[in-house]
Amino acid sequence: MAVTLLLAAGGLGAGVFGALLGLGGGILIVPLLTLAFGLPFREAVAISLLAVITTSSASAAVYLERGVANLRLGMTLELLTATGALAGGLLAFILDERLLAGIFAAMLVYVAVSMARRREAGIDERPPDLVVDPTADASPPANGFAATLGGPGYAIRRLPLGLALSAFAGLQSALLGVGGGIVKVPAMHLAMGVPLRVATATSNLTIGVTASASAVLYLLRDALDPYVAGPVVVGVFVGATAAARIAHRVPLRVLRLLFVVVLVYVAVQMAGRAFGVVLG
Amino acid sequence: MGRVVGVVRDPVAGAVARLLMAGAIASVVLVAAGVVLMLAAGLRPTADSGPGPDPASIVADVVGLRPAGLLWAGLLLTVALPTARVALALAGFLRLGDRRASAVAAGVLGVLALAFAVALATS
Q1: Confidence at A128, pLDDT banded by 50, 70, 90
Q2: End-to-end CA distance of chain A
Q3: pLDDT tens for each residue of A161-177
């Protein structure tokens, strides 16, 4: 009973963070299952991918309903993320688990630094319905296909770069059991000129397809325990649904600071695992 | 000075949103029921290993209220939901006559089908 509740509580926390920040929640679930519950890395990745899909479905439904997520842009990026995820899912069964833990730790440090910088930059955190985005590009709207993907007040820039980054996001998503949002959100916001709130919401939409492309590989290789996955998925659903509904009221600066602290702590733990060192 | 940006109103998005919410709720209800039955049966996560997915017996397991059957039904529905969402979007784009978006949606479905084929071939 206690283990079940702890798994559900961990899923709930991951669902809240994942939905609020467009990350899917896998970034917390993999360390939780491997470090706290001693699950093998690949099994943790498989469960995390299910949690990512749950976060995506629950939160994207709300973001689409409110018109924040950009469906056409998201689906265009999905073409490449799903392809990358397929490749990553195959690679994951070849690479050494300690190497994967090392890559995960490096990724956590990257995310922590990105988040800390974003906090310092003071990005606008008002509701997405009417936001003056100080980082929005004032260049003329794109021509051709990219022109059909923009939204009110913003145009899509550097679509090829965004697509290339999306393929990389899919690859690391499948390898590490994360949603890929840590690459997709900066790719959309910084490289393609999409407002941060729209990028976060659209990332939440796309991570479900990305994760499902590789989750099926884990499923058919019996790398998933339903008794562990069940409580985690229930917790994630509750957390992600609630977070998506209150996202516009949450002080993201505080949340980001907490998230950075957690990321750094988990990165140290995962690095210790990669190098075979047990840390307190 | 930045520019004013607003929300995206996509005619297909509403239908996709309703499918995602209904599917997510259905899958979580199945999984939650499986968790309750798992606890009632005295099964402990991480200590007791759950069985792998067996599509042939899932319906019978769900009807028979067996924990693993309910859990797998919910988990498989979870994995299938993004594909269903892309298929629904494809149908919507086709109905609107949006050929570019339809081609993109068909491409995503193709990649997902390829992933399933690769998983079957290599499992």
Answers
A1: very low
A2: 26
A3: 999 989 988 887 777 76
For A230, the closest of B2, B7, B34 (CB atoms) is: B34
The domain limits of chain A are 2-274
- Residue B63's Cβ-count burial label (10 Å; 0-12, 13-18, 19+) is exposed
Strands (E), chain B: 3-5
> Complex ipTM, two decimals?
0.86
H-run or E-run covering A165: helix A159-176
pLDDT in tens, B64-102: 889 999 999 999 999 999 999 999 999 999 999 999 999
Other C-beta atoms closer than 10 Å to the C-beta of A197 total 27
> Do A196 and A21 form a contact (C-beta atoms < 8 A)?
no
Residues of chain B contacting residue A145, judged by C-beta atoms under 8 Å apart? 100
Q: Which residues pair with A267 in a beta bridge?
A: none
Of A153, A213, A226, the CB nearest to B111: A213
Q: Name residues 115-174 of chain A within 8 A of B (Cβ).
A: 128-136, 138, 145, 148, 151-154
Mean pLDDT, range A98-126, rounded to an integer: 69
What pTM was computed for the model? 0.79
Number of other residues whose CB lies within 10 A of the CB of residue A93: 12
Question: What is the C-alpha separation between B100 and B107, in angstroms, rounded?
Answer: 11
Q: Which of A77, A8, A34 is nearest to A176 (CA)?
A: A34
Residues 19-58 of A with CB under 8 A from B: 37-39, 50, 53-54, 56-58
Task: Give contacts of A215 with chain B, Cβ < 8 Å.
Answer: 79
Most confident of A9-23, A145-159, B78-92: B78-92
Strands B3-5 and A131-133 turn out to be antiparallel
